[in-house]
């Protein structure tokens, strides 16, 4: 019993540590600033509580804050749901359609992916979100999407309060001359005077909060539109990318096969109900899924295996010609490399002269790949971004002394 309590306390402490990250700190700070300033502006200078409209407005502001925080913490602490350690399909023959995760010591269930940040296989993984410091997946997709909807709506309300407060307080204080504009911040807007006068600091704070509210409305609103699109197609962001790569693979090899995404149920409403339910719990168990007619549970995983094999064939071997420390923005590798560093949380890998890397994708000044014959203590492959100028393409395999192009053609 004591051991069980210790495990529970450890897990609770581990979940609370999610707050100690730049993403949640910034997100919660923005929510706190916009909510607090909207309430202060409304009560003191725009719509006092001694009026019916002011009381309703104040209750609405509190309601926005509570609903935003409720869904935010749900998305963070409930989490996406993970594939159980050691999981495998009931029918052992189905293992041939699945990838095996060495870290979790289990097969990856359909629609699941291993997250390097969480170090677990996540059910129906959409992406790892730094703002909640957790993955968005099967169990928290609805809460995360509701947060993306409510945050812009609350910010629009707050922005209206900020604009109206500054307008009403400055309306009688601004005077225009032939060549000047005068603002008398000592002039009272209403009688009786407010408890705290609307001074220069209040104006600056309201203007700053307005900028945060408008920026949040645009940025988070765009993320909500993206999430809604994939939900209505019963996809995730990762699965949309897999579908695009499937089209590219088929076109590259000129095969006659047709890839059909298996989880789109045909109706947007039916797709919507897979994520949003009256009970608050998504449909299914996160391991088995409803599929459209003509497809089966492993249609997507079979395509993933094909893409993984194709990735190995089309990858290119490089050798390091310069040392690289693994810095995010290396000053010593040129100005263009410094400026064009990838805007992603994916890791950078340090290089020593002579290291060999299997590059799988790249940008103009950066490349992404795996170090050959290297792994961490927990079995993870060492992979990430590195500057393109630090490597050169290998013309020959160091083990067989055969041209790499010829090797790939014969695979």
Automatic annotation (TrEMBL):
Name assigned to this protein: Palmitoyltransferase
TM helices/strands, residue ranges: 21-47, 53-73, 146-167, 195-226
UniProt-annotated location(s): Membrane
Family to which the UniProt record says this protein belongs: Belongs to the DHHC palmitoyltransferase family.
Originating species: Podarcis muralis (Wall lizard)
Keyword Hydrolase in annotation: no
Record's GO cellular component terms: membrane
Molecular function GO terms recorded: protein-cysteine S-palmitoyltransferase activity
Membrane topology: Multi-pass membrane protein
UniProt keyword list: Acyltransferase, Membrane, SH3 domain, Transferase, Transmembrane, Transmembrane helix
Residue ranges of domain SH3 in the record: 313-396
Annotated catalysed reactions: L-cysteinyl-[protein] + hexadecanoyl-CoA = S-hexadecanoyl-L-cysteinyl-[protein] + CoA
PANTHER family: PALMITOYLTRANSFERASE ZDHHC16
Domain notes: The DHHC domain is required for palmitoyltransferase activity.
Enzyme Commission number(s): 2.3.1.225
Enzyme class per UniProt: transferase
Pfam family, one: DHHC
């Amino acid at each position: 019993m004591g051991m069980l309590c210790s495990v529970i306390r450890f897990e609770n402490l581990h979940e609370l540590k999610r707050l100690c990250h730049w993403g949640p700190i910034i997100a919660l700070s923005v929510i706190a600033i916009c909510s607090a300033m909207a309430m202060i502006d409304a009560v003191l200078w725009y719509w006092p509580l001694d009026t019916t409209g002011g009381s309703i407005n104040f209750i609405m502001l509190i309601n926005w804050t509570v609903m935003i925080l409720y869904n935010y913490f749900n998305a963070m602490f409930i989490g996406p749901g993970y594939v159980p350690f050691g999981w495998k399909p009931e029918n052992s023959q189905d293992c041939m359609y699945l990838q095996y995760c060495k870290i979790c010591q289990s097969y990856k269930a359909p629609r699941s992916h291993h997250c390097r940040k969480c170090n677990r296989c996540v059910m129906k993984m959409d992406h790892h979100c730094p703002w909640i410091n957790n993955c968005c997946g099967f169990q928290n997709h609805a809460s995360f999407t509701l947060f993306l909807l409510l945050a812009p709506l609350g910010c629009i309300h707050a922005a209206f309060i900020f604009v109206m407060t500054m307008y009403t307080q400055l309306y009688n204080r601004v005077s225009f001359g032939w060549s000047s504009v005068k603002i008398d911040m000592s002039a009272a807007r209403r009688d009786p005077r407010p408890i705290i006068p609307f001074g220069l600091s209040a104006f600056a704070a309201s203007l700053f909060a307005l900028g945060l509210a408008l920026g949040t409305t645009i940025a988070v609103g765009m993320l909500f539109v993206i999430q809604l699109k994939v939900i209505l197609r019963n996809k995730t962001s990762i699965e949309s990318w897999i579908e695009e790569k499937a089209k590219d693979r088929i076109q590259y090899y000129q095969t006659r096969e047709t890839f059909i995404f298996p989880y789109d149920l045909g109706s947007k409403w039916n797709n919507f109900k897979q994520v949003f339910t009256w009970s608050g719990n998504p449909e299914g168990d996160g391991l088995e899924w409803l599929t459209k007619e003509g497809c089966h549970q492993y249609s997507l995983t079979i395509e993933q295996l094909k893409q993984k094999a194709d990735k190995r064939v089309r990858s290119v071997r490089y050798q390091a010609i310069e040392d690289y420390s693994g810095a995010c923005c290396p000053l010593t590798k040129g100005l263009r490399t410094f400026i064009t560093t990838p805007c992603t949380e994916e890791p950078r890998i340090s290089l020593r002269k002579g290291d060999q890397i299997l590059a799988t994708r790249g940008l103009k000044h950066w490349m992404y790949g795996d170090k050959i014959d290297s792994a961490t203590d927990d079995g993870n492959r060492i992979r990430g971004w590195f500057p393109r100028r630090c490597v050169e393409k290998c013309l020959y395999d160091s083990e067989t002394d055969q041209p790499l192009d010829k090797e790939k053609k014969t695979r």
